[in-house]
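Supplementary Note 3. Input sequence used for the single-chain structure prediction.
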Amino acid sequence: MSAWGSAFTDLTRSNLHDYVRRRIRPGGGTRPALLLLEDRGRRAVVKDYRPSSWLLRTLVGPWLISREARVYRVLSGTPGVPRLIGILDRHALVVEHIAGRSCADYEDGALPPEFFARLQRIVEGIHARGVVHCDLKNRSNIVVADRGRPYIVDFASAFTRGGSLALLRRYAFDRFRNDDLRAVVKAKLLVGQLWNQPDADFAFRRDPPERTVRAVRDAARWLFKLFTDRNRPPRREE
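The predicted structure, written as discrete structure tokens, is reproduced below.
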């Protein structure tokens, strides 16, 4: 485990529960467990696929952990992105905890335009590093931290521009980048203080290629969840 000041330097799977302060979410099926940790005044979150289904825990989870950790390393130092503390083991990673409320918890008109201007700059900074988030339409991935600062969390669905199939990846990157930007504008329309028609036209418009890309992505997620749920072992009777 990499050092974060003097915190979490001795964290391992065997002593993990010595650091746990709260279980944010139990794991199971296609969902990893989320645990809140604390050490020497620092807080972190563990994303752990060990309690998930056999397929996710054994085959997919380790790949997702490695992939998400790589994204965090690419984004290291980017404003508005939690820092990666380290990989606990092949099933789990540890990232900085961002204290605050989910953007999804806010009512209409509760957040000022300045928040969304900052959020857009963060998203553009992520894109400049060659990463798209791909799940900002889920507003729980946008955190309103202290003094109203926006943070973006959970890069499990993130997509990077580099690698093999460069032309195809560049095309997909541009499409998903528009998704990210539209998600910011849509959040501003839904929970911000300003409504205007140009933003609405941009946020809700989908051209045919983008609809195709989104449909393929959503179908792949649905098939994966269906396969995982069907292969989940039956629950034991208490």
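The chain has five helices and ten strands. The chain has two domains: 16-96, 101-230.
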